[in-house]
Amino acid sequence: MTVTSKLPFPPLRPTSTSEPGIIRSNDWSAFRELTELHDHWTLKGWAPGRSGFYWYLTFSDPTLADLASKCQVQLGTDTLDHVPLDSLHLTVLSIGNTDQVSNTELTRLTELTRQRLAGINSFDLTIGPLVGSRSAIRFSVAPWDPLLELHRSLRECTAAVRPSSQLTETSEFRPHLGIAYINVQQVANGLVAAVEQLRDLAPVTVRVEDVHIVELRRDGRQYVWRDHAVIPFAR
After folding, report:
1. Which GO terms describe its molecular function (predicted)?
2. How confident is the model over 112-131, as a mean pLDDT?
3. pTM score
4. Got the DSSP string for 120-136?
5. 47 to each of 42, 130, 211, 220, how far by Cα in Å?
6. Taking the alpha carbons of 19, 85, 74, 8 in that order, is the dihedral positive or negative?
7. Distance CA 64, CA 88 (A)
8. Residues whose CB is less than 8 angstroms from the CB of residue 120 and which lie 6 or more positions away in sequence, other chains included
9. Confidence class of residue 4 from pLDDT cuts 50, 70 and 90?
10. Among residues 82, 115, 153, 199, which one has the fewest Cβ atoms lying within 10 Å of its Cβ?
């Protein structure tokens, strides 16, 4: 079976983007139905030396780090590459490769987004329970509504500055927070069962107060980034 990383996962959006239970059920049903899991580093092609600019939400909440750590310890490292606890993040949107985005465009994008986000308030997200995708282990995130609003705003700002760029449609955005990448192709039932044993761990709530433009690259089997700009929401 041919699998493309361009397809969103879950394939279908939940019937409600505001109700956590419906979002979590949709995530879990899609993961549980998988028969095969894939090597993330092969599935997500990344040319040597490539780097790119992305819109990220980043998290330093100790309760979230504790939840992620508990799950990582129980899952082990035999076929997983864990996301460092100080690197937990939610990818919102790709802006473009670094060799395609000029400093002038980044400056314009930052200022335009600052103006746009002046009308968006900080918000809470509930992270968990544990679930997975075709090539990663991750937490469900709820509600989606503020994230979809944010994605639309960032996409519109990015398109205004870079009209020729190919940006993910908001209808294809599937919010999630990854804690490990699968590093070998395998049948799904083993990891699905391992994740199911951890789904009783209580979700945590975190406050989202800003969004980052990051410069992202791969370092072996890990993603590494540095902040280029941090844009706060209205308080």
Report:
1. ligase activity
2. 95
3. 0.95
4. -B-EEEEEEEEEE-SSE
5. 11, 30, 26, 12
6. positive
7. 9
8. 146, 149, 150, 153, 233, 234
9. low
10. 115
